[in-house]
Amino acid sequence: MPRLRRTAAEQRIAKSGGPEFLEALARALRIVQAFSRSTTPLTISDIARLVDLPRASVRRTLHTLGHLGYLETDGHTFRLTPRILTLASAYLLSNSISNVLQPAVERMTTEVRETCSAAVLDGDDAIMIANATPNRVINLSAQIGFRLPAVSSSLGRVLLAALDDAELDRLLSRITPKKLTAATVVDRIKLHRTILKARSEGYSLVDEEVEVGFRSISVPLRRVDGRIIASLNIGAHSNRVSLDTMRKVFLPKLQTLAAELQSQMI
Hints:
It contains 10 helices and 9 strands. The protein is of the alpha+beta class.
């Protein structure tokens, strides 16, 4: 069988991964991730375009994923099945941090009656690993696994503040910040200052930069040795909660919770 054509991106990734790198596994994960970019079933052509892979490679990977029960097809389009959630649950169930944080954010939400979350840094994004929302708030998107651009969100800026200067400079030079709202900061110099401010003050407050009418405040969560491993956040609608309340009421509560949780973060 002839060797499948590798894209330039694949060649770079494979080279950096070394001789033990499994290209087939990497392709499968890229294809699974492609489904997050569409709310409708995808054709082979759709997926090949999204992940920049040959159709033959995509077809074989889809066949394998279907045989394993991770996706289904009507013969033309493909969609993920609920079994794919077992991959996420494997992380959540094996990660002691998630097991501790979910009950913690639920308690905080009950106390302040606003949304509370925890996130970790994943590449250029902050990804939620715990989330609790009061009953009066309906938000189907901001759940566990939800991703936010790290440079624009308070959850992410707290995590970026934990990077050393060289790492932070590399990230800011590599990314292209998106203007999510009129308030979103996209200038790299301003972003650098904002992240350094979060580092020095020990928290980040973002006002309508990710979503119009929504503001949030976050603090770092440290493990026992002092290393920052996650961020804790309270978010609220701006017409209901003032910036003053975020700083004077919510910030101390988050700081207290982070201090209480540190001894459990091993």
